[in-house]
# Entry
Amino acid sequence: MIDRDQPALLQVSDLSRYYGGQVGCADVSFDLHPGEVLGVVGESGSGKTTLLKCISGLLPPSAGTVQFDTRVDGPRDIYELSEPERRMLMRTDWGIVFQNPRDGLRMNVSAGANVGERLMAVGARNYGEIRSAAVDWLSKVEMDLGRIDHLPATFSGGMQQRLQIARNLVTQPRLVFMDEPTSGLDVSVQARLLDLVRGLVRQLDIACVVVTHDLGVARLLSHRLMVMRGGSVVEHGLTDQVLDDPQHPYTQLLVSSILPV
Amino acid sequence: MPQANPLTDDAQDMIRVEGLCKSFTLHNQGGVRIPVLENVSLTVKRGECLVLAGASGAGKSTLLRSIHANYLAQAGRILVRHDGDWVDLVGAPPHLVLDVRERTLGHVSQFLRVIPRIGALELVAQPLLSRGFDQAAARKRAEEMLERLAIPETLWSLPPATFSGGEQQRVNIAMTFARDYPILLLDEPTASLDADNRRAVIDLIVEARDRGVAIAGIFHDAFVRDAVGTRTYTVDSARKAA
Amino acid sequence: MMEGITEMEQPETLSGYNFAYLDEQTKRMIRRATLKAVAIPGYQVPFGSREMPLPYGWGTGGIQVTASIIGVEDTLKVIDQGADDTTNAVNIRRFFAKTAGVATTEKTAEASIIQTRHRIPEEQLRADQIIVYQVPQPEPLRFIEPREAETRKMHALSEYGIMHVGLYEEIAHYGRITQGYNYPVQVNDRYIMAPSPIPKFDNPKMDNMPALQLFGAGREKRIYAVPPHTKVKSLDFEDHPFTIESWEQACALCGSEESYLDEVITDDRGSRLFVCSDSDYCRTRREAGHQGSGLPVPGEPDTTSTDTAGEAS
# Structure
């Protein structure tokens, strides 16, 4: 449930990132509230990945600010936090699900250890409890519990993505960033994963920014949609409005280009 | 059932549309502009069911979808009474519009957007969990609703993707009517239904109306119109005037 | 250099070499690093490790630390796996005898500096003693994080969750923590440290030790330290607490039931003798009158033997 009285969880203002003379993204502004899922769609080179990196603390912007409503200190510019503070934030209150699961997992420790790591990082010292939490989360992401002690290298792509999700959600972050979470997966696997994400986001009231090139994914997962092209946001609004009543020529082109099934 | 006179009492207004203009510009077809609604104003009050009438293509669906903020208005105001205050959906921040849709503005669309793998019962029950129902209560209410709409129990655990058009429509209706919306927007709720199911839906609508829900809807079927409607608004196509 | 010299002589220091081999500037550099290490317990201080007359892996780090702190009045003991008489211990002791002319000893109680590989002496050390450990891999996080830049950050930010991930993995796979030596510890509630490959049996001795503990890693070029009376805690889980090894047997020579025992195979049938790893400790107990059974734990019986006469031995 979206509570309109709460302050924005994430406030992005005039965010720009240049690579020399090249525009990564320019003048992006938006607010995100608890429980909202914001989809960012665009084709290759649209700037959506740059934007995601900037707002998730991985890439300092050339201009603009990214403010997060921290649990302890209220709204803080994430790039003015000290590195330890930012790293701690990224390990507890935030989650990042990478396109390639290998970027978001430790491939040489078991699935259970992957899920338990964040807990151990914030001081969990009871093996039994850590393992229970790992079991709990692995079942939430519908993984075979018999594989809790297996290495992620032995998992399929879809399972690795589920593991990545579990690993991030175990500290109950309030904000999760996802970069093309389902691309590269088989269509049926995609569908199940999207379903899972949708369910978890709603259940846990997580705010989410999902970058995708797939409008179907955006329709299914997001409440709001931002369409990017050439580094700029050309349209943004409620997902159903942007897809059913697109205003910008580029958005209209995108929507009309979807192949019907 | 007798009500306090709704037609003159302002506090009974739940929707106020003022000077709504809506057109579509097809940029990829040479920028052709299609005006659909021109200066539309109407109100919907508590306990009434406003029938949107008009010729095919006149813009009834467009009007309804604009009120739901599914379509973007070019001009005008769409005021909805939310938590006792007026919210203008035109220009409201997204999280506010989402909140209005979540708690105040219910909507039955013509088509059920199918979500893979979620069974019919769960589709109806899930949204109730955030409304203060616990698991058991949500389930019970969902079951009651599906029973009322004659969805056989064998279908409850199945995702509606494989249901017939009529079954999907009834699941749609169950999803919306299971919750307690103060305002309902209904777009052809009985389109694919046979006489028995139509009756069940009519009963649901009338009950809601008599409970004080403000309803606006498009009903092609004259029988349904007469059974549920209390007032009619005729949408004149802006294109005609052009 | 070392040929033809018998053990326990006190030769003159070799000409052409500075006292204790290293030049004074190097010793100063190492002492500076050591002071910094003492000031930040458990923190690895990089130092300019010098080329020593023995290869990496043979204790060059420990030797450099000892060389930098040793003075003419010191008495040096060197042990390797608890024994004073192994090749390594003998050679290192001779090295210092030749280059520094210092007194050497095998008695723990008489030493002012004890250089050790892979054991802490059983006898409690005193405030006027220094123990110098030889360390192969000073970085406790290396097993899971190969990047130096990253491990430095992790230490700086106390991001140690990963250490418990390692312990978790062991319990998940083996039902218990199996790390038997070089068992990671947390020093002064701050840095996580590799105690060098001492058996975990010795870890508790590090906690609140009256002596100064110095650690030298020559190949990796790091020095670290635990000042006297510092808290040293072995990592564990609440429900899998740290435990040390124990034996059913006592030392066959001195009868000790409390020291770390080595297992010695005595015949080809697998008969085993358990003796104290700390040779000085064992000898001291025997000199005080303690005696073990002297008998090996028998292996499989020889069923082919036809010898029936019992012989007194």
Notes: The mean pLDDT of chain C is 91. Chain C has seven helices and twelve strands.
